[in-house]
Every structure is written in C-alpha cells, then in structure tokens.
Please model this.
Amino acid sequence: MKSDLSILEEFGASLAPERDHPPAEVRHRVMNGMRHPVRRPRLLSRLNGVRLAWRIGAPSVAAAAIAAALVAGQMTDIAGGQPAPPGPGAKVEGGAAALPDAGHVLLLAAQHAGATPAMDARSNQFLFIDSVEVESKIDARGTTVSGPLRTRTWLSVDGTRDGLVIQEARRSPVRTHIDGCTNGRQAQTIDRPETTPKVACTPEPAYLPGRVPTDPAGLLAYAYKIAAADPEWVSISSGSGGKPTGFVRLSDDQRAFIEIAEILYKNHLPAVQAAAFEAVGQIAGVQVRRNVADAAGRVGVAVTRTEAGTREELVFDPTTYQYLGHNIIGAKLDLNGAQVVRSPNSSKGTAHFRLGPIPKPGEVIYKSALLRIAIVNKAGQRP
Amino acid sequence: MAAVVKAAADTDAAVIRASLADPDRFAPIYDRYAAMLYRYAYQRVGPEIADDVVAEAFLAAFRGRASYDLDRQDARPWLFGILTREMATHHRREKARYRAMSRSTQETVQDGPADQVAARLVADAARGPLAAALAGLAPGDRDVLLLVAWGQLSYDEVADALGIPQGTVGSRLNRARRKVRKALGDFDPTTTKEENDEI
Model:
C-alpha cells in the first residue's frame, strides 16, 4: 500500500515540467541581474522602497581619509544665496559660545529650508541634482578609493517618469536608468528595468507633495515605518577566509536616520526638507560635530548618529544652515548592549558584509555633497 | 596551493565565499541548482510564473549571499528557503491552481512505460482529492509538506530552509499529512500507527 507521501510525490511528478532546465532566458536574466554596476549613487538605493540592486551586495570599506577638493565656484549655488535665517543661530555661531546642540542646528536648518522658495515644477519635468561623491570600497583587487566623482541625477518631478544618473568615472561616464513608476508599475529593481519584473508601485515625486509627509511627525513616522519593514544588519568583523563572524542589527533609530538622509537626497521639496530636519531632531542619540568636511571639501557643522562602527553625518553650512550633504565615516565599534548574531537569517531586510578589516575610526566610507538643484524638462538635460 | 583552492571550490560554500569578493563567481550556484528549483517552482506555482520566481530567487540569493552560513557546504536548503519566500507572494495563485485541479476532470492516462502508467493511474485517481487537500492547507504547513514530498528535503533541511525548529517541521508535517490522508481516505486508506499528535 502506498503511503500518502509517495502518492503525493507521484502527483507532484505529474505536475513537473517536461524539460529539466528552466528556459535559457531565465539564466540570462539571472546573470544580467547579478552584473555588478560599477558605480551607483548610494543614496538612491531605496528609491520608492523597492529593492534596488545598487545597494545590495556592495560592501564598502574605508581605506583612507580622503582630501576632497572641488572647484569652489561650483558650490556657491548651494551654499550661497540664502542668508542665514534670523534667530538664535547667529548668536551661537558668533562667539566662543557652547556648541549648539543637534536640535538647535536642525531647527535652524529647518528654518532655512522652510524659507527657501519652491521652484516652479511641472509634473512632467525633472529635478536635476548635481552632486559629488567619494566612496571607498574593497573588492577582489583590493581597496579602492574613488572620487570625488561628479554625479548628476535626474528624477521625475512626479515620480512617474524614468530618471537617469550619470556618474563620471575614470574612463567614461556611467549612465544608469532609473525606472519610473508608470501606470502603477515599476521594475522590482529600479536600476535594472530590463532584467527584473514589474511590480505594483506608488510614485515617489522628487519635487511635488506625495508619499513623503511634509510635517515632522508624519515624516518621522514614515522613516520609522520603512526602518521597521526593511531592517539592516552589518557584519562586525571578518574572520579567517573572509567569513563574517557576526552581524549586528541596526537600531530602528539608526535606520530612520539613514532613511531621512536618503529622503534628503531624493526629495528636494522645501517643505519635505524642512520637515526632515525637524524629524531628525526627534531621533534619540543624535549629536552635533563641528568642522566636518563634505565630499566637496566644504567645512560645516554636522548632526551625527553613530552605531555599529559607523557614524552617519548630515552636514550643514555653519552660517546659513543650508544642507550640504551626507557623510558615512568609520567609528569605534561599540558592541555594548548590541545583539550579535551569527547570521541575519531573516526573510526581509539587507545584510551588509564588510570584506576585510572594518573601517577605522575617522576613515571615510562614503560622502555625498549636494552642489546644486534645478528643474529641467528632460532627463539628461543640464540647466 | 592551487590544487587546494580548486578542490575547495567544489563546495557551494566555497563558491559563495568566492562570490563575496567577485560576484561573477556566483554563476555555478545557478548552474547547479536551477533545474531543481525550477522543477519545484513549476510544480507549485505553474508554468506561467515559475520562470519569474526562480529568477527572483536566484537574484535574492545573490544579493543575500553575504548572510549565507559558510559552515554549510550544501546550499540547497538555503536556496529552497529563498525560493519558498519568493513563492509566498503567489500563495493565493497557488491555492487557486490546486482548487482548479481539484475540480477538473481527470486526465486520460498517457502511453508510456508500464510502471509509469500505473503510477499515473494512482496519481490521477488521487489528483482531485490531493489538490483539494493542498488548497486547504495553511501556507506554512504546505511549505513543509511539499519541501519534503516534492523538494526531497530532509526534516533537518526543511528546518534549515524555513528557519524554524525541527519540532515545528514535525508538527506541521503531521498536521498536513493528516489532512492529506483524510482526503485520500475514500479510495486508498493508508493509515499508519506511527503518527503522533502534534509536538
């Protein structure tokens, strides 16, 4: 008499495909999907919350501090122009007074952003973001420090059109197409629209009110919601043979901080930026740090949050409180109270595996400095 | 030295380890397991989306390779776990598929080697009740049952693949098999005494 399992097996056999192997195009798709883009703007990694190959599988490690120098003239667009908002900021920066606390810096930054007039933008236009990046990474050939690399990004004003990133590289610029959320569908991996299936999406406007709330409490809740849905683990060391000896899960506070840094890169609506700065002030554990250089070499005051051997920094102009950019810097790895697991073993989220030594305190892992934004008609068009 | 490296490269763990630094070296994992995963996905979700879930599972595996436990030489349970998660988004569709099978008239038996035809006969008779039983299982129970019956995974491997304790594998499997046996009861009662209640 046959057992239930063997009858089930036979039933299964009757459902099996006639050919043994999946169609060749499946292999093609997988191999294409695995192809590692040479460069990718890191802050765009989670556009729309869809999975993005950019971020994944890109272990980066600090090599050495990088002296980033860029043409000073390029920076006036962002740093200049707006006067410092009136308020207590002027006093604080004036004398040898105590360092303003993070909440204070963020409040001034929010005031500055709130006072910035919104540009005219039609839904079919593009937000042009001119930026410069510095990144160190390690691969099979060793550690390489790249940058400053000029990075130009075009994002759909209403989020429904395809965007573009052009990053200068050693030989020729690298162009990456960003799939827009068109008719409610978007490539699951937005920088590889040809190789991944389309999934349902909600457009994420780059310069119109939309998914990202414009009030601090709403934006904070939004960032924490993403943080909870998409946890992140970081390897704490690598043992023999490049094998991770353990991972720590980033706290929701740290993840929310990182999420907001990403929002600041990809959404430049003044109301969103202002709300984002105020929201950061509500995250536990933020600190302030003076004399912090951004990827363009500008020195400012930073609001930071440190965890799992990494210090995330939001850099502001010390007099105008204009937002300058985002830095990721190596920090002392403090595992006090951290829960170390051997393997993330989770169906959601991302694990970052650092190959080789972990970054030393102070080493640059990544920097992105904002030079200029503008509204243009087409992706690829310069203002 | 080179010989040592070459020998070590035969295990899945060694391939995955090498791919951490050099992504191109992940390809052998696909070539080793694509057929196995494709068959399993095809059985469960059908031809229309088997391609998609298999491709996505391999890409998810690739992206998640940093979290692979390099002590495990055999990547099969890990891959089946990832595939199971990819298919989970299609569980309604899978269920609807079993429902449709349970209603459809039995297929005519095809010509072929006698043993296969005989097997088909039993399978065809069992088809409706089995499909109905599968449609009625809780997704977690169905995952365990089918990983064992169709994926040919051991209990340990199922526990590993799904990230659940072995005891849970046992209890889910018992529960699923009880339902399957109940469905089959009418034409081929196969009650055995070994089954216990849930752990």
Remarks:
- The radius of gyration of chain A is 22 Å.
- Chain A is about 25% helix and 30% strand.
- Residues 36-97 of chain A have pLDDT under 50 and may be disordered.
- The first strand of chain A starts at residue 126 and ends at 139.
